Amino acid sequence: MIKATNISHFYGKEQVLFNVNIDIKEGSFVFLSGDSGSGKSTLLSILSTLLKPSQGELIIQGKTLKEISNLDTFRQDKIGFVFQFHYLINYLNVYENIELAAKKDKKQSIQALLEELGISELSTRYPNEISGGQRQRVAVARALINEPSIVFADEPTGSLDSKNTTLVYELLAKAVKKGTTLIIASHDMQVQNYATQTLRMIDGKLQ
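-> structure tokens emitted (207 positions)
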């Protein structure tokens, strides 16, 4: 599914990742843990194809980055993203935010997905009219609408209370049970309760 070999990365002259090797199998729930500044977010960006590594090779679904002809199309077809801040568009309602990300053949599934996530009654509301926990559930719906093979989540519960944190983890774990591979970077050790594989970053190195 995802294989990273000798991944190193620099920001200018500062090296933030050191020869990281990872092999992630399909259907895994991977918890990438580590303190702030440990390199976990940079590694997640590289694994998700959002950032090209300074050194090393990434193979995702059997292809190197050079073999993927159109990364934007690949991401829309194969990858979902959930971030700490939902990045919803304020002038679009909940339904429209998800519709914007949905492929043409997935648009008819939006309402059913909202019902599954318990937010169907919010479809015509705008982001500034709903709570932080509800906005993050909308962000999860947006990530899942195209039924991606892989979902990457970077501190997806960092701004949520404990109740909504648990809810988001359970929603993501449910997607894994349906076959999605999930890689979540977080300093929240509660993720261990759901993960099938835990990786810890310390000072840019995988422990």
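Residues 26-39+70-206 form a domain with the Rossmann fold fold (CATH 3.40.50.300).
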